[in-house]
Amino acid sequence: MASNAPPPPPAVRSAGPPAPPTGPTRRTGRARRPGTGPRHGRGDRAALALMLGVPALLVVGLVWLPAMATVLLSFTRWDGIGGLETIEWIGVQNYTDAFTIYPPFEPALRNNLVWLVVLFTVPTLLGMFLAVLLDREMRGGSVYRSIFYLPVVLSLALIGFVWQLIYSRDQGLLNAFLALVSDAPAVDWFGNPDINLYAVLVAAGWRHTGYIMLLYLAGLKAVDPSLREAAAIDGAGPVRTFTRVVFPALLPVNLVVVVVTVIDALRAFDIVWIINRGRNGLELISALVTSNVIGEASRVGFGSALAVVMLVISLVFIVVYVSTMLRGAHR
Amino acid sequence: MHHRPPGPPGLRRRALLGGLAGAGTLLALPGLAGCGTGSRDDPTVVTMASNRANPAQRVAVEESLGLYEAASGRTVEVNTFDSTSFQESVNNYLQGTPDDVIGWFAGYRMRFFAERGLISDVSDVWSRRFEGAFTDQVRSLCTAPDGRQYMVPDSTAPWAVFHRRSVFERHGYEVPATREEFVALCERMRADGLEPLASGIREGWPAMGMFDHLNLRLNGPEFHLELLDGDHSWDSSEVRSVFGAWAELLPHHQPDPLGRGINEAQTALVRGEAGMMLCGMFITHVFPEGEDLDDLDCFAFPEFDPEIGADVVEAPIDGFMVSGDPRNAEGAHELLGHLGSLEAQEIYTAIDPQALPTHLDAGTGGFSPLDAKVNDMVASAGALTQYMDRDTRPDFASVVMIPALQRFLRQPDDIADLTDTIQRQKLSIFGR
């Protein structure tokens, strides 16, 4: 899994083209002619080949090849034991089964979509709001920032475990509190399939908010203060300053936030797995893949078909993002 | 102008790369040294993988192995794994470099590994040491379709309906023998302010216990085992009657079982909030030793059909097998012979509260009243079954049955659609 450290915010593009290289000739004695780039020696080429080649080899070998193998295996029935000769080719039967007779599949697709929408709306906006609030130099600002960021440091599995203590029906904090203040019967937060997804989303959003807040804090620091001053001179209030002036200037950060949110929504797995292995209302495609392939079920072919479905869904977002980036680069 | 300010010379790029490469090689060397021969050729060492990870179980395994080491002069290196994670990763484990002796259980999985050549034939151990030591039933559970034995059993942890003796005495309850008596008892418990049946199905697999017992009582052990083997349709009227009987019993269970873990349900029994619980002997791990554990009692799941009776017992049998290509084959077979022997079983089951010995000659002298009662149940059982997730294909049990049973507990009224769904998935998995 990727580390929890946020990616460094892209630097705000400075104005003007870079200055052409000037200055004294290099100590090696080779004069640099203006207009051509530096010539690479053999040692430099070897270094470049290694630095590009080794990671590329790792990515191809550990990501691309297994992905292609997964696509191939999705057309088979295999239990992972015995050699490749025990593979049975069955065409698109796995896909047909997944879409027609496999009950957890449709809830899983729906839950992934709900996860994406909720993660986009609630924690992202809340994180942005908190970032704007904490951007000012206020007393105790760093304390608040630490408090809000602390959940990001915890792994999702640990968060699932912690929130189980809160959400447990018989022994949890929330139900104990509700029993104290009202006569409502104990709510089955994790067992009721209509509400357990949202209960889990609160726990996941609790973590996501801090992450987004940090990204926006970094982005806000990079916004040119003269923009804000100009807005203040023009008589704009704080809300209009933010929506009309600061927010558009945050475009690079917004892009990063969108990417991070989509990745986290598609990758959601740890917390539902810890709670109940992704069943009974907490189905997610990643949990279905895991329980089919990695558990004792060992339905490699069927699990691969589910994984390919997940890949196709991710590809949609990847294509949109990459084409946006490329279009932006050409401009 | 971009003059670099004067200062100490920076690390040149090539020097940095060279340094990194050198450091990497140095760090990798010890790893390469580890790929050596290891203990493969050492005849005095036997490696063992144990899936008995509870503290009491670890102590019991240690004691048993201590006896073996003293008698044979070999050393045993034990790797202990958490039972559930071991069960889930056993496929990969067996295909990697497994230990010589592996703790496992009887049933479909063992036969499956035998067919795939992942475990070794141990019939020689049986013929040498265990003729007449186990019942025919136990022997057949350790035998693969090719007629040879692949596992040596040592203990069993049967299922029954557990309750606290003191609670029954205080309210004047009597042990029910038939369905009517059982339902009447549940209603009395509910009136007395107890939850009649504790129920924790968040993990999913505990629900199989109730299905198994109802199926065994309503349709008999032959139908049950054939159903799990794929020989009957899940859409049949017999299976639907099982779900129907279960739906009638649901009001007597703890409400909202899907959010409650099995440990929380067992705790309800310990605390006296629930009257009874259908559970395995592993519930003894949750009851504190002493007064609480002595208070634990059980009875067989009641009879539903007088023609079938109530003498079939769900008794999952645990044992040991030898990996397909053991490093120390002779030592492994010898260790297996020890683990199944009377002394080892008596030592192990004395320390592990959930285990009962399977050896026919095991003395019942050291048994607590609970152990003695359960042992009687197993000894006089008309038939023995394991548990659904041990008697049938694991992909069917975990991927199809657990979600289906949880769906049943959420919506007990749509039985026809439920059995239809199960049958369709069963056809795609079993192929028939």
UniProtKB/TrEMBL annotation, chain B:
Q: Quote the SUPFAM superfamilies the UniProt record gives.
A: Periplasmic binding protein-like II
Q: Which Pfam families match?
A: SBP_bac_1
Q: Which Gene3D superfamilies match?
A: Periplasmic binding protein-like II
Recorded hits in InterPro entries, A to Z, give: Bact_solute-bd_prot1 (IPR050490), SBP (IPR006059), TAT_signal (IPR006311)
Q: What is this protein called?
A: ABC transporter substrate-binding protein
In its UniProt entry, the species of origin is given as Nocardiopsis codii
